[in-house]
Amino acid sequence: MKMMLLRHFDFDDPSAVLQWAGQAGCEAAIRDPAEGLRQEWLNKLDLLVIFGGPMSVYQEWEHRWLVEEKAFVRNAIDRGKKVLGICLGAQMIADVLGAKVYRAPHKEIGWHQMTRTQERHPWLEHLPEQFVSFSWHGDTFELPEKARHLAFSEACPHQAFAYGDNVLALQFHLESTPRAIERMLTEWSYELREASYIQDAARIRSDLRRTVQSHGLLWGILDRIADYNRKG
Description:
Strand order of the largest sheet: 2-1-3-4-9-8-7-5-6
Mean pLDDT: 96
CATH superfamily: Class I glutamine amidotransferase (GATase) domain
Structural class: alpha/beta
Distance between the termini: 11 Å
Shape: globular
Radius of gyration: 16 Å
Number of strands: 9
Number of helices: 6
CATH class: Alpha Beta
Helix content: 25-40%
Low-confidence stretches: none
């Protein structure tokens, strides 16, 4: 299986996905959308993974490359490629499918409980009904038409959705590593204000061990995507 990872900021850490790819024998290429995307790259691509980022999908006037990236993602979906969006990636999927992306009533930062809905999707069949994941987001989205609502949290009603059989959007960060989280806590410390769903740095650091379980859940998703790819 050939994968492409779209990475939006320099200290984002894709190592959890790359570790899985190495063990699974998958080819993985990392691209920075700000440096340009070529539509022909989709020809031999099996899975597109869209990572998070500090920008918003509606900030096209500030980040002109978002226009090109959205067209790339939309083309991947239209061509039936498997697509996994994480945080900004999930918001981008929602956006290109015609749903509204906007500032959430509550910013969600730290380790928060996710709860699955009654809707099912084969890529998530191994996930428990409730689990804790790292989050860092201020935007949220409405569900696209015909999407299946898969998970929610207390602060955010739309944490995950699927679109058809090939597209999965996750607002939360199963891929985050202790190294990346530490950089976030340093680079974006100004966001750690006292609020209902924002944890302080000490609380976040005390639970960094949770990344081990999160990576296991992520690898389970990727295992099922790979199985789905082999079945055609």
